[in-house]
Amino acid sequence: MSPATPEPAPVAAPEPRNSGAALELLVHGVGGTTPHEMLDDPRTVRVTGDGTAAVYRRADDLRAEAEPDRFRDGPVPEAYCWSNLTSGNGTRALWLLLLPFMVVNLAHWMRPSATGHARSARLYGVLVRLVALTLTVLLTAAACEVALDLAAWQCAGAAACTEGRSWLGFLAVSEGGWWSQPGRRLTVAAVVPTALVALLWYLSHRTWSAYEAQRPPRGEDEHDDRPALGRPGFWYGRRLVARLRAAHTAAGLLTVAAAVAGAAARHDRGTGDTLRTALGWSVEGAIAAGAVVVVVVVCRRGRSERRLDGRLDRALVTRLPGSAAALLLLSALYASWSRPDWRSSGALPGDTAFSVLILGQGTLILLLAAVALRLHRRDPGPRTALGGLAGPAVAVLACALGGVMTGGVAQRVADWLDGPGTPGTGDGPIAGPPLLLSWQASAIPVLLILLLVPSLFLIARTALAARRLAPVVEAEYAGEAADRVRTRRIAGVRAAAALTDAAPVLVGLLAAATLLLGAAGVLGTWATGTVPAEAFDGAPAVLDGAAEACQALGSWLVGLGFILFVTWGRRAYRDASARRTIGILWDVGTFWPRAAHPFAPPCYAERAVPDLAWRMASWTGRTGGRLVISGHSQGSVLAAAAVWQLPHTTRRRVALLTYGSPLERLYGRWFPAYFGAEPLGGLHREVHCWRNLWRRTDPIGGPVRLPAEHGKPEVDHPPLRDPVVYGRTHDHPLPEPILGHADYQADPAFARERAALLDRLPPALPLPVPRQRSQGPDDTEGPAPHGSSGRSSG
């Protein structure tokens, strides 16, 4: 195999000798694209950046600033490619396993506007961070359930289960080895959840170093009242992520320690051994004290955005996980103490642990909803999703995803270990997973049936809307021969694009149903103490059969859902079409910094936004020229965020062109505190000029709804016609496609609006003439050595 060709170093563009340069900085959207496609040229050169994210130019445009006559009719195009920040090889599909963490992190940013209500905003952040902490505990508890309870406690303690499983031989009670005592089996099995916590810590630390440790272009705050996205520390949350990483790592290790020590302590309290009982209480008390410290650390400090905070709480970051690891080691030693009379039977008390977790999550989410309603009522936004309850609703979905993954793994492992038996029914060698997981699985078919009704309603409403839009479409193409099939297709695409606006209703219904069914699962477990199918024994045959069907179908659906997480994730990173289909949801989730959960997938914007801000500031400062940053789809969000980060002197030389933009339609409705009407209006006033292009057939982009004010025209262009031509013409002999969210640059309006933006920018600034240093006969031109003034000494 030949050695890999090293990647060529970026080629720096030369210093311009003419100050009249104009630049268009293109930023692509979801799904990514190549610089060759963005620049419409197979020959491109990387100007600056690396293999993860970089700025490219056409090879012929590398010295464009020195050749201004070539670009009198338009700007020099540059392409910023950031797709490798969110996609890559198939191993990144494992990031999809972090989906619950990503979703709960979204809930933090969905807070309603809190102008003048800082205390309520802080309380909102504390509650979301606590919900995120419960998800870490839930995932670790699921690993403990599989490794400690199902494998080490139940299966290794039953000869019928260990038969034919050589990998459990050294733990099997039937072998009578040193490791066969229950406490020692639990100690060995604790390696699995401990390794999971260590892996999450490693991934969080590694991705921070690779993706998010990029400083913004300025470190000072211009004004205290600047929008959040314009503050110096918004895209640099190093201190908070490190604190949360330490706290969540400690929480995971303490969860494992509690599972190991708790089983041994319960046995010792039943034997009457005073020494062991006191030691057990001491270990459990130390674990409880550590849990209190973790909660205090999570609640104490939130994000620091008004200044660039580069400090680290090094003592906390190292001592908290280290103390938790020491407690885990102490628990393992305590559980490994010889107890010859100890026998494992039944299952570990997982129902109690999972019930407490679910009740805690439900309580926190109800408190979060109360705070969100209070904030929304004080500053209501007419287009805010779910009346300010978007954050609590999304937090419910995060907990539901965690439950599906937890139940899926436990159910499938139990089914595998139980052989031909059915876990939880007593007809196999093991008792099976906690009953609560069976009740939750039984609720999934009910939830799907409940969602079927609004889904059918939306389908019917879309069909009726398409029929009503037919005459509107034909009126827009007046003068052309009507084609019923063509009209119906255009109207259908427009009606389907409007389904995006119905997402809040579906999310709200799903969250409410999930919350109620989760509560029903906890009550069912406590009330019956048996699996759902057996709880209805003696009931009418129809009800009994329905309960049995729901329990069986739900169990399979939970396992299937977990498998689909990995399958869809891998396909999304291997198949470009699948990536574009679900990419918008993933890219929205990873756009935001990790403010609630440190184990969420990395935030690509903490690399992309500083990249764009640095490029705009450095190019305008070096050339004095005009710049239009041109963003499509998610790229428009990155472009707006980067413009917010620019100093005032740079912003006045920059124009913003957005197209297919979800700035208001998605971000403004779901994240009102950061992209609502007030923040977007402030951006409109701060940037020199801004134009937004959109189509009615676009399911993602839309208008930003900013009127003309302060002498600036309206931001939104009238909706572009799509398709550009209705039927066949001499110029378009073949039918034109309905573009929807794609190919905005193909519309003639794009070039016109870009030229108009450049014309509205102030003239290029004159650059100072560089001073020529005197040269002696032995002098050569070149940069002055480090530490010299650059002047000749002769």
UniProtKB/TrEMBL annotation:
Keyword Heme: no
Taxonomic superkingdom: Bacteria
Transmembrane segments: 93-111, 123-143, 186-203, 246-266, 278-299, 320-337, 352-373, 385-410, 437-459, 496-526, 546-569
InterPro entries on file: AB_hydrolase_fold
Stretches the record annotates as Disordered: 761-794
Alphabetical keyword list: Membrane, Transmembrane, Transmembrane helix
Protein name: Integral membrane protein
